[in-house]
Design goal:
By secondary structure, the protein is of the alpha/beta class. The chain has helices at 8-13, 16-29, 36-49, 60-73, 91-98, 145-154, 206-215, 237-247, 250-267, 296-305, 333-341, 353-364; strands at residues 53-57, 82-86, 103-107, 129-135, 157-161, 169-170, 173-174, 181-185, 199-203, 220-222, 225-226, 289-292, 342-345. It has a seven-stranded mixed beta sheet, with helices on both faces. Strand 2, helix 5 and strand 3 form a beta-alpha-beta unit. The longest helix has 18 residues, at 250-267. The two termini are 18 Å apart.
Length: 366
């Protein structure tokens, strides 16, 4: 029995009839950009996240880029300013900072939680620090009350990278509404995934929202009038329609992920395998289920031989990437340990409990 890491065909198939109907509706409408489908999804997503505004854009990287760029246009950030960011994030978080000529300040995570270590943030703050970007990596809530207090104390913006945590919460608030602005990715494999690239920004700040909407539309707030030097980064009507359908089922899909994760936590017993600290389900929507093993590559090959597909998130940390070779001399041992040992097990809304049991059976025999 082949157990795929993620079957996007099966995920989409759960809502096939509704999706086909929505796509046909858009095609028949003759309106394919900046129409009613966008307006409806943006309103529904803002309500779901708990913010006043949601602005659709082309992808999750652009969402983060526009947040930083808008703060520059509005005079909050300037070239050379610093943004604190977790060292073990996916590279998009960091690209959004350097794209805008700001400086990322890499802070180690806690190995147990995989999220930024809030005890190491304040020592990295300088007069050029303007924001903290937290990343809800793997679907785990990265926000802490201490981070909120640090932002208030030092007058820092709090930016969330919510690409992997749609539906996650801290207390009674969803991630994406905890900071000043948040970037969201709807890449097909995400908990809320489109049928291609798509993204959004959420915020309560109307001035920021208006600036971002203009930046993503060539810099224009009025047709053929350009306030900013922007780019084309718009969410198309088909993706908006598909996302609005899948949004209705997001909480249920996340619940299915949580049930699989519960079984993994309660039944993986191989002493060679380390699991991250278990959070309450409200704080983890399990975009991924990472495990750690000193013989990671051997474990992955073993699982492959037993027809279980896995992926590594991510094999090379940002500070070891060629595009940031100026950081190659930096020592980030916790980040490097995570990237050297991490292996993601299958988890999705369509993974069956029988498949999860087979994953556990095989991994416990490694």
């Amino acid at each position: 029995m082949q157990i795929p890491f993620l079957s996007l065909k099966d995920v989409t198939g759960k809502y096939s009839s509704e999706i086909h109907s929505a796509v046909s509706r858009v095609i028949d409408s003759g309106w394919y950009l900046q129409g009613e489908e966008n307006k409806k999804f943006e309103a529904d997503y803002a309500k779901y996240i708990g913010t006043k505004h949601a602005i659709g854009c082309a992808n999750g990287l652009d969402a983060l880029i526009w947040i930083v760029r808008a703060y520059k246009e509005l005079g909050y950030f300037h070239d050379g300013d610093e943004i604190i960011v977790p060292a073990n994030t996916y590279i998009a978080s960091i690209l959004a900072i350097t794209e805008n000529n700001l400086k990322p300040i890499l802070v180690e995570p806690r190995f147990e939680t995989l999220e930024i270590d809030d005890s190491k943030i304040e020592e990295r703050i300088t007069p050029r620090t303007k924001a903290i970007m937290i990343v809800h990596l793997y679907g785990r809530c990265a926000y802490t009350e201490r981070i909120g207090e640090i932002c208030k104390k030092h007058n820092l913006k709090l930016i969330e990278d919510n690409a992997q945590a749609h539906g996650c919460k801290f207390g009674d608030k969803r991630t994406g509404s905890l900071g000043d602005a948040s970037g969201h990715s709807f890449y097909p494999g995400k908990n809320l995934g489109a049928l291609g690239d798509a993204g959004a920004v959420t915020t309560d700040n109307q001035e920021l929202a208006e600036c971002i909407r203009a930046l993503a539309n060539y810099g224009s707030q009025k047709k053929y009038v350009f306030k900013y030097s922007g780019r084309n980064s718009r969410l198309d009507e088909i993706q908006a329609a598909v996302l609005d359908i899948k949004l209705k089922y997001l909480d249920n899909d996340n619940h299915n992920r949580q049930q699989i994760a519960k079984y993994y936590y309660e039944n993986i017993s191989n002493p060679k395998i380390t699991l991250p600290e278990r959070l309450n389900d409200v704080n983890n929507v399990y975009h991924l289920f990472p495990v750690f093993c000193e013989q990671r590559d051997s474990l992955q090959q073993y699982l492959k031989e037993n027809e279980i597909q896995t992926l590594i998130h991510y094999p090379i940390p940002p500070h070891k990437q060629e595009c940031y070779n100026e950081w190659d001399c930096i020592s980030l041992p916790i980040t490097e340990k995570i990237h050297n040992q991490e292996l993601s097990l299958p988890i999705s809304p369509v993974l069956t409990m029988e498949e999860a049991k087979e994953v556990v059976r095989v991994i416990n025999q490694y």
